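Dear colleague,

Following up on Tuesday's group meeting, I ran the structure prediction for the two-component complex that the binding team flagged. I've pasted the input sequences exactly as they went in, so you can double-check that nothing got truncated or mislabelled along the way. The structure tokens for the whole assembly follow below. Feel free to forward this to whoever is handling the docking comparison.

Inputs:
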Amino acid sequence: MNGVKKVSFPSFTHYNYAFKYFMENGVGARYIMPPQMTLRTLDRGTKASPDYVCTPFKTTLGSMMDCLEAGADTIFMSMGLCRLGYYGELQEQILRDMGYQFDFVNLSEYSTGKRRDYIKALKRLNPRMSVAKMMLVLAETVKLVEQLDEAEAMYYKNCGFEKVKGSCKTAIKRYHTAVETATTGRELEAAYKKFKKEFNDIELDKPENPLKVGVVGEFLTAQDAFSNLDVEQKLADMGVEVYRYLNATSRMFHYKGKNLQVETSEYCKYDMGPTSTINIWAAKNYASHSFDGIVHIKSAGCTPEIDIMPVLHNISEDYKIPVLYLTYDSQTSDTGLATRLEAFYDMISMRKKVL
Amino acid sequence: MQKNKGAEPVKKKITIGIPRAMLYYRYEVLWKNFFSILGADCVISEPTNKEIIKSGTAAAIDEACLCTKIYLGHVKSLIGKCDYILIPRISNFGIKRNMCTKFEALYDIACNTFRKTSQKFLTYNVDVIEDCPEEKAFIEMGIELGFSKKEALNAYKEAKKGETESLKNHLKANESLYKKNGLKILIVAHSYVAMDSYIGKPVTDFLKKLGTVPIMADVVDRKDALKRSAKVSPTLKWELSRELVGSIDEHIDKIDGMVLMSAFPCGPDSMVDEMIIRKFRGKPILNITLDDQDGTAGLETRLESFVDILRFKGGTL
């Protein structure tokens, strides 16, 4: 069909909707929504992956297989500052060795920092793409990502205190559905407004001074509910306000690394890795705003996140704030996590009563 | 080592501690020359031994890679024995010429891990994308030590000359190994793994004992290797891995087999080794992951059977 591709990007939390909006309205390609990841996704991904690569490699690889199964003929893969930057090429190689046939657009190949190279990558998805239209929709997509992130932040802050069980979930699900079907910026705007109103009307039963937990961690595992076994929901359900500064908005669109570095200079002199500065800053920020605890989430073997752990130890010591370190691999069990979270919750709630 | 004739003697001689781990094997000559020209003394930590690994493991995060643990062990062994401990921060040498993020973080890891000691650390920051090339970094480091800009620049230039010279000799000696008789086995490993006396050295020593010729892949014409690696794997972005891949590409016809050796759980190697296995078909490859386990019997069995396979293939068994 005129070289227009059926594109998929491996599943990554609510950004799936943003990709869809951008690909369909901006680039003019068809977007195949990546199927919800399941244990089968992880299983297949793990089997095809090298042993001790970080877990997101395995889930994204599994998700790529899911996407191809769902009808995509082209996979779009991101670049990245850590191992993520090499994901694409190795995943393509693995899938091709397995016998899959597909087109692969790897942003890493185009990451020269020049705008025209990125446009080249997008033109492979639709040779007749209008650059002007794409740029316009890109701006709308950025706005959409900001709204999705904000909606999520509102959700995890409040969903643990709803009077009617499930009312928050219903609201955000309805919002996501509206976003998924939207085709114009105006529709997106309306959907967000509607969500905000609906969400603010939800009756809450929140104590005056609720437990507050801040989440820091690796970009994918900390954000993607499937990858972290829904840890934020589990925490919230115990009656905790859950905050996470790290998201695409803060790390990609409004990132002021140098300024964050100034504010964390007593702990580190340099930027230690892709998400290190933002996480250290966030952890310090939670600690100095008298949060009750910090949860650090990463996949097994994530080098940058392992590297900031000595800093988190020191922040924990200086501000007397408990930190729970969670490492996810392809065999992490739901029950094990629940037990650790419960113990953590008990500890911080007892601490709050005493202090 | 070179002596600097012109420089004034430093009022109080500074002692710089250099951990014998990680990038030491890559920058040994440059560092030693630079400091000795400036008139500072260098203390190098002992070759890795059990004690060092033990104390490093205790200091490091459990999940950190073996090389980090070894490194922190070396740092710890130097604490109190020198004025400064040198821990560079090397981020990249340009686009697609990155170092593992570990090298971006190493300085801050050490500072945070050992912040209760009064030890001072010395660093320099190479980050070409952020306009911080090596020369500038060394000048800044010299100034921090109390030397003038000119002294630091001269010392750097002189030291760099020595480094280039030594690399050339090293390369020449290494290239001659490819012409030797006997089974030639390419050791594909970072220098800080292959040369480490506790983890990598026993492997090469054992291969020698078996009568084979182990050859280090990382001793290679670096510029040429980078070019070659871009052809083999275009988005590969780690400088050290690119040198290794380029070296394999250059020497694949001259060797009988390869041993991929990495320390558990090395980030770049976890992916690059897989890519090497998938890209370079036709030569036997042994993939070894090293950890700090003591028993060498299992490793020796694997090496022996690998060499047997090579001999069998070559018809000499």
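The beta strands of chain B are 15-18, 41-44, 84-86, 89-92, 120-122, 125-127, 184-188, 213-216, 257-263, 285-290.

Cheers,
M.
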